[in-house]
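Complex 516.
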Amino acid sequence: MKHDKEKIYIFDTTLRDGEQSPGASMNHREKLELAHQLALLNVDIIEAGFPIASPGDFRAVKAIAESVKGPVIAGLARCIAKDIERCAEAVVPARKSRIHVFLATSEIHRKFKLNKARHEILKQAVTGVKYAKKFTRDVEFSPEDASRTERDFLAQVVKAVIDAGATTVNIPDTVGYSIPTEFGDLIAYLFDNVPNINKAIINVHCHNDLGLAVANSLAAIQNGARGVECTINGLGERAGNAALEEVVMAIKTRADLFTNVETGIKTERLYKVSRLVSQLTGMTVQRNKAIVGANAFAHEAGVHQDGMLKERRTYEIMKPQDIGMDGTELVLGKHSGRHAFRHQLSRLGLNLTQTELEEAYIRFKELADKKKNIYDDDLQMIARGDDSQNASVYVLDYLHVSTGTNAIPTATVRLKKGKEVLQSAAYGDGPIDAALKAIDKLSGVRGKLTDFSLQAITVGKDAMGEANVRVAFGPDMLSAKAASTDIVEASAKAYLSCVNRYLSTRKLAGKKIKHN
Ligand code: KIV
Ligand code: ZN
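Predicted structure with zinc ion bound:
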């Protein structure tokens, strides 16, 4: 059969724009793990970070470029030589590397943010693209705030950067201001008014401030865009970006409307990746979220259930299996051996080295002693290890809490620091407060808990509880998470992880540059 569909390139920016969501930061190991899962999902491009933003971002982009095979690995850079050089250094180890340069073009950004005239913007954009081309063939340019840029000037910029060698031009709706008919019309306008437009792929990058990011992206595809920049679970600045899973499933489910295009996404992996991102970032997916929410395929009303039993298609436009929500996971337990353990990990795309595997197996056995069934989510936690054990200054060795109605909650905590053993007790407003106060006494630093959430990350009464904390040490803000079947222990470990990181990294510079 003749294959005449055009490819829609899925450009995943969960690790860059997504990671800019307040409170969604991931550590180095988590970023690598997610990048490997995105490759298994078969995304076309992974935007792995903004290398100039911090040493941590640089290291993560470089490590992803070195180890993740399949997708193009992109890094973001402002249209500035030092950004481009740093980005090139990070992405060039990839088999397929991309430098993504951006510069704002709208009047409001030119006037208030950049204080530059149109001709200066045009010149800087062209210079930036030409400079990036010295390092890699694949260069993307984004006119930031494109949707609020004067159309004639936008067309001029797009033409100039394509002439300068941009292979992809991205049209961002940076502030999520557009509505679908208007945004589709903007893309059509560019196709009609930029003479060399067919020499580049046109991407779109829509933010969700008005809840229209996915709709705008789809309208752009219908008007000629062939790349969509999106994130898992719609993470991203402010209200987020277009959700990858929604864009992909809309194109697939409405193939009757999107007759000439398709994506290469392995949709049966969507649910797993969504869960992983939620776990790694601590950003819970709302139950009624399209495609991957817990209720997305749940039918409650009697009349719906009746219809479903008679014919599934009465109330279901997609099958849960299409996104990998099939409930057929294999469950491990304390009698499971190394072989089954390794097999399950590699089924989840978690390929550990022999040493990592041995360490993970010990954690598995410890958990299996406390918890009868070990599910896929538990395995992901086990494979990742525990935040609090990394580069630890203090390790939680013993925790005992006493609490109850009309009782004064108290906690006894023992921490190990090398060979030193420290012990203290404290009382507080609840067992968690008491435990954290005892940790403060022992560590000698006092963090202020500015954000705290607990969620069950596996199923059953013996589910693992994950604590996500955000702790301020003066002006320094750190986030961490930890999981345990005991939520007080999870909270104490997450808090201790922040204390450790504060103590060991407070001398490191590296404030993130904020951008959209
Ligand atoms: O929203 C935006 O404009 C961006 C650009 C850097 C592409 O994130
Ligand atoms: Zn953005």
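The CA atoms of residues 49 and 116 lie 27 Å apart.
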